[in-house]
Amino acid sequence: MDVLVPINMMMPGRLIDSSVPLPDVNADLGVDDGTPWNSTTTYTAGQVVYIPETLARYRAADVAGNLNKPPRTSPTFWVQIGLVNRWTMFDGRLSTQTVANDEIWVEIRPQQAVSGLALMELDGTSVTVQMRDPVADVVVYERTESLDMTIINDWWEWYFKPFERRRDLYFSDFPSYTNGEFRVTLNGTGRIGLGMMSIGTARNLGCAQWGARADFKDYSFVRTDDFGNTTIVRRPSAKNASLRVSVEPWSADFVTRTLADVLSVPCMWIAKNDPGFEALRIFGLGSGELEYNAGIYNLNLSIKGLI
Prior knowledge:
This protein is mainly beta. The chain is 5% helix and 48% strand. It folds into three domains: 7-20 and 86-200, Jelly Rolls (Sandwich); 34-83, Seminal Fluid Protein  PDC-109 (Domain B), CATH 2.10.10.20; 207-305, no CATH class. The longest helix has 10 residues, at 252-261. The protein is globular, with a radius of gyration of 22 Å.
């Protein structure tokens, strides 16, 4: 049972380069980063701008006189609509994606030793992760993972069954370098997307026991009127889980300190990094209590998934 405590990728110097342009405008993909905000431009309703310092995007409201109205301090004139496409994978939300056609690659420099990398809400066919030592100028780690998890049972499914894909990947087997640089590449055909990239320190809490439970919190709007007519507005859903984790007595203090450190901190929780356990790999908030028995310690862990 690992918890991946992320570093802040919005810090200067951590994103080296990306195949996603800045700004990015692509009507076919539904992408519109707009243009850098300019204090001398009069904006009309619907125009999109971004702030180079924060990489946040804003859409002009239907209000006259939008001249020299800084988006960050003028909520009457502007509505924030997220980050630019290149940086959406770092916005801390699973319900948004960095999107492109055929390939997305990103090069990052964590500026510290890291031990875990999670990629979530993937749309594509394969992912390759490389780690490079910039001093020796050599690749010290490379691994490619297919996102295909389609199970074929007969000839009809061979020809017609829709492609089923893995939605998340977790890497924790690369060497530790304080100055290591990573290149993550997502490949596919046509529109592809990456919802979130989280990199940081993976802390092992123990061994998740059988009997773990996972459920879904649906944020959709469902209402049935007095005549039986039902209105449904589909919205995102989040995964939740409750687990019992066996904790070695010698690591109990480390586990309790870790739980205290990550309270109210969105993290990636990985009960088991194997196929068939996707529901127990959750991005969200964790809390728990430690049971002290004679020679046997157990952590009762609850995870509230985020979207």
